[in-house]
Amino acid sequence: MNNNFPMLNTGYIYLDNGATTWKPEPVIKKINEYYNDFTANAHRGDYDISLRVDNEYEGARKIVADFINSDYKEVIFTSGTTDALNLVAEGYFRKHLQKDDEIIINYAEHASNVMPWFRLANDLGVKVKFAALNDSNALTLDSIKEVVSDKTKVISLAMITNVIGDLRDVKEIVKFAHERGIKVVVDGAQSVPHIKTDVKDLDCDFLAFSGHKMCGPTGIGVLYGKYELLEEMEPRNLGGGMNASFDSPEEIELKSIPTRFEAGTPNIEGAIGLGAAIKYLESIGMDNIQKHEVGLKKYLVDELSKIEHIKMYNKDTISGTVVFNVDGIFSQDVAIYLSKYKICVRAGNHCAKLLKNKLGTDNTVRVSIYIYNTKEDVDKLVSLLQDKNKILNEML
Ligand SMILES: Cc1ncc(COP(=O)(O)O)c(C=O)c1O
User: Fold this and answer.
1) 108 Cα: distance to centroid of ligand 1 (angstroms)
2) What's the CA-to-centroid distance between 112 and ligand 1, angstroms?
3) Is the pLDDT of residue 100 over 80?
4) pLDDT tens digit sequence for 44-76
5) Cβ atoms of residues 289 and 369 within 8 Å
6) N or C: the chain end with fewer CB closer than 10 Å?
7) For residue 125, is pLDDT > 80?
8) pTM to 2 decimals?
9) 344 has catalytic annotation
10) Three-state DSSP string of the chain
11) Is the pLDDT of residue 349 over 90?
12) Check: CATH 3.30.1330.10 for 25-283?
């Protein structure tokens, strides 16, 4: 689809894009520019390069806001999805939930969308309930309906999960939830990089995602929240940059939203690198990205289906993720074998440790596709998986 990723010159076939993605030249150039041409702190200086930092940093916020169709004040920079989900759980829901209130998640969620809720359950006596997955391991509104009650206060779900990769009908789930006064938190770590995201259309209350999974730098992410909800959210960190004044414990005044949630020196190169990444993705077009991934996944599924010793767990999902096992071979051994041929895949439980009972295994090989992957990458992978004896011999 494009060739301006320096990592393509290394000869690796990178199929672990659910973990992180490669960075294109415009992103690397932008980060280098910050370090070579205008290094200064943000929101603190009165000299020209510092003002440039402010413009670039706030400009990146505007790029993010336009990308997800939110107001720019509704975009909080975090260190990633994990940080964003913890911020919303701790900053908003710790204050708004009471004993016996209920939170609905499901068994396919990533640890980052489970553990913050478990902590609230332990600390506040709220209950975490699990919506069932269907026969294709997907989550539907019907299974949410089965567990919802008048005590449900929040539904938290990934729009696309990192193992099964099913695209959830978040819009329909949000509509159902809002009719009952339930808030919806969306983990967009695996969806925002791959499909067009419109928070106004989805009408979700919060959305979390990571820059590094969408061609941006590591250590930067976003929490989107509806402005009126952010007004009721507590900052987790206090300190420089987020306060207007602090004369005594009783006289603390915070800066406006979103700055009040970004205490300390922010990840400047991360934010402007993310801005450059979004521009890059937009230059390709999110619809083209999704079409490319879904097409390549279908090709991979068709090819793997021809191999008897391969069992797939998510053939039908509409995303670029395929999880499978080679009969009788531990997933990590498969990954190590493929690594000898410079093919990078992920093996293990993929941080979705609650999924094991439903899948019947806690170990799978995951291939996750992105814009720079090609049919030739898939062919090479498939050819290496065809002969089980070759895998068994070479993994020794
Ligand atoms: C669905 C999902 N949620 C959350 C995360 C956590 O993202 P990060 O490690 O960037 O905070 C991941 C990372 O793999 C993920 O796939």
Assistant:
1) 12
2) 7
3) yes
4) 888 999 999 999 999 999 999 999 999 999 999
5) no
6) C
7) yes
8) 0.96
9) no
10) CCCCCHHHHHCCEECECCCCCCCCHHHHHHHHHHHHHCCCCCCCCCCHHHHHHHHHHHHHHHHHHHHHCCCHHHEEEECCHHHHHHHHHHHHHHHHCCCCCEEEEECCCCHHHCHHHHHHHHHHCCEEEEECCCCCCCCCHHHHHHHCCCCEEEEEEECECCCCCCECCHHHHHHHHHCCCCEEEEECCCCCCCCCCCHHHHCCCEEEEEHHHHCCCCCCEEEEECHHHHCCCCCCCCCCCCEEEEEECCEEEECCCCHHHCCCCCCHHHHHHHHHHHHHHHHHCHHHHHHHHHHHHHHHHHHHHCCCCEEECCCCCCCCEEEEEECCECHHHHHHHHHCCCEECEEECCCCHHHHHHHCCCCEEEEECCCCCCHHHHHHHHHHHCCHHHHHHHCC
11) no
12) no
Among 85, 112, 207, which residue has the most ligand 1 atoms within 8 Å of its CB, making it the best to mutate?
112
CATH no., domain 6-17+285-385: 3.90.1150.10
156 in the Ramachandran plot: left (φ > 0), alpha (ψ -120 to 50) or beta? beta
> What is the spatial distance between Cα 383 and Cα 378, in angstroms, rounded to a whole number?
8
Q: Check pLDDT > 90 for residue 354.
A: no
Q: Where in the chain is the domain with CATH 3.90.1150.10?
A: 6-17+285-385
Residue ranges of the chain that CATH labels 3.40.640.10: 25-283
Q: pLDDT at residue 331 above 80?
A: yes
Q: Is the pLDDT assigned to residue 103 strictly greater than 70?
A: yes
State the distance from the centre of ligand 1 to the C-alpha of 267, rounded, in angstroms: 18
pLDDT at 1: 61
